[in-house]
Predict the 3D structure of the following.
Amino acid sequence: MTPETNNKSHSVPQHIAIIMDGNGRWAKARGLDRTEGHRQGAETVKTIVKASAKAGVRYLTLFAFSTENWKRPQYEVDAIMNLLVFMLERETPELNRNNVKLLTIGDTSQLDKKAKESLKNSIETTANNTGLHLVIALNYGSRSEILLAVKKLADDVANRKANLDTINEINFTKYLYTHNIPDPDLLIRTSGEQRISNFLLWQLAYTELYFTSCTWPDFSEEEFSKAITTFASRERRFGLTGEQIEKNNDKPI
Ligand code: IPE
Ligand code: IPE
Ligand code: MG
């Protein structure tokens, strides 16, 4: 996507991406099993989806399961997958009523049969909705996404469907999972960790980063508003000078 240099008129991020972290620690601090943290975290998803729609956010991308998360204990992986199915079945009618369109990024072909079926059903049910785009990152890893894109491109070049001379930053993005999604304006990571953990490495090039010590199960509409307010106070320069940005903001859009 072309960088948006007129930042002042865009105080509400068009696209917010969230690394929902800290479910396990939230549970541990309460003497509960880690899976209870995931259950509570799923309720936070509901709250933040509603808050995003209310704030006028167009895209909300949630990192739900990484390519590396398969290495966790099997019982935890199973609990996360069961929770995904439970939430999709419980919440799809509500998503539909609220005009939310569900999308996924990541290699969902590796999920179990039940999860794939529920996803397919929810995606089809909400396909014609025109409100908030809710993008769930499932079995998502940014390095594998970029590698897959390069392989597809190489294949297209070999089959003369693409020409190396005309490949640029814009048309390369068509090979990514996020091909029809604008780059995030704001990335939020909860739980105090300050790293990207293989999430949207290409797409985050000019995204504003916001880290909070609040764990995901405790993340509330108020915490979410704080992140949006912080975003609104930032000056996004995209490599330009502050003076150039000021001049740009004076111009009618
Ligand atoms: C995020 O919470 C959820 C997933 C990665 C699936 P964690 O489960 O990573 O919680 P912590 O980081 O161990 O506290
Ligand atoms: C990132 O969180 C993945 C998700 C939120 C789904 P992790 O908890 O897996 O990340 P690390 O291992 O702390 O970097
Ligand atoms: Mg974690």
